[in-house]
Amino acid sequence: MSTPTDGSATCEIVMTYRNFTGGGRGLAEAVHVSVGGALGEDQARIAANDVATNI
User: Which of 11, 19, 40, 52 is the most exposed place for a label (fewest CB within 10 A)?
Assistant: First the structure.
């Protein structure tokens, strides 16, 4: 979470979407969710979590 001095905030979430094997080794697909703007820190976190939960 970063909160610049202008009152905006950004929350970034990285989560594993799917694990699989390829070429004899374990691999994973990751989803990156970034929500930001003038929402404020708490609302940015809630919005990012809502998006990530629905993926």
Answer: 19
The three-class DSSP label of residue 32 is strand
User: How many alpha carbons lie under 13 Å from residue 54 in its C-beta half-sphere?
Assistant: 6
Tell me how many helices (H) and strands (E) the chain has: 1, 2
| Distance between CA atoms of residues 23 and 27, nearest Å | 9
From first to last of its 55 residues, the chain has per-residue pLDDT tens of 554 556 678 889 999 989 999 889 999 999 999 988 887 888 888 999 898 888 7
Pick the closest to residue 39 from 7, 15, 12, 16 (CA basis).
7
